[in-house]
Amino acid sequence: xxxxxxxxxxxxxxxxxxxxxxxxxxxxxxxxxxxxxxxxxxxxxxxxxxxxxxxxxxxxxxxxxxxxxxxxxxxxxxxxxxxxxxxxxxxxxxxxxxxxxxxxxxxxxxxxxxxxxxxxxxxxxxxxxxxxxxxxxxxxxxxxxxxxxxxxxxxxxxxxxxxxxxxxxxxxxxxxxxxxxx
Length: 182
Description:
Elements: H1 2-77, H2 82-105, H3 111-148, H4 152-158, H5 172-175
Helix pairs in contact: 1-2, 1-3
């Protein structure tokens, strides 16, 4: 009689343990999928903002440098007298002060630095997405294995634990790197 009770207790404990492990694995798969969504949302939000930020800084620098270059050329070309020369030199001084103010206040405001930051953020985001996808596939593999091996496959079948699909890239377009253009 005691042997039967012990066997029954062991079976109940095994059943509960297997069932709980299946539930945990299913929740991990759901969480892993949510993490992919989080990273994709981050990418969707990040890329346009970074591109616009870099465009703005590059435009500001380009306009400022073009203004300084134009003012310098006008100062060199001014030949109509002192008034014209003074006007041209004042314009050059004014644009140079603007350039110095930008450099003093924002020493790192350089187009190449912004492009490097954009590249780093994009690389970081893509790496996070790849990691989230890998983590998801790892969790799917664990759940699918658990639902297929004996004796957990019996419990999985009784309680409708189904196989999950791996994250796979189907279209060749999705395999290409994200392209950013200015």
